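tool_call predict_complex ligand=FE2/S2 (inorganic) cluster
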Amino acid sequence: MKVSLTVNGKQYSADVEPRLLLMDFLRDYLGLTGTKNDGGSTSGVCTVLLNGLSVKSSYILAVQADGGEVVTIEGLAENGQLNPLQSAFWEMYAVQSGFSTPGLIMLLTDLLQRNPNPSEREIRHWLDGVLSRDTGYQNVINAVRLTAEKYSSTKKPE
Ligand code: FES
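tool_result ok
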């Protein structure tokens, strides 16, 4: 079957098996290996944005995403500059093994799009979406809070 997707702002089309997962399309067809594959667990390390919403790309067939717009971890930086959430992960030592970090960042990008100033409770609730075995989640929470603070300090009064 033919699938056409916009990924990180570029248009791609390919003939694929109907059972091909979106995760495998991103990794194997496009070489976007920042989207991780945990080999069958439900950790959410494969999380990407599809039409603006975070989804586990191993739960979706590529053909189900046909015509959609996907953003992966590779699509967040602009002109070689980390985006504010990526920078905050770096500043707050929230980068864990690296394996779960892309999924966490994509998930939390969705959260920050919906609520630029989430409470710690809300952040913790969202963190259920991606499991990481590395360290605690506190530095990840701190990174989201730092991003929210930076966002609110740059927001112009209305
Ligand atoms: S690869 Fe395990 S939830 Fe997607």
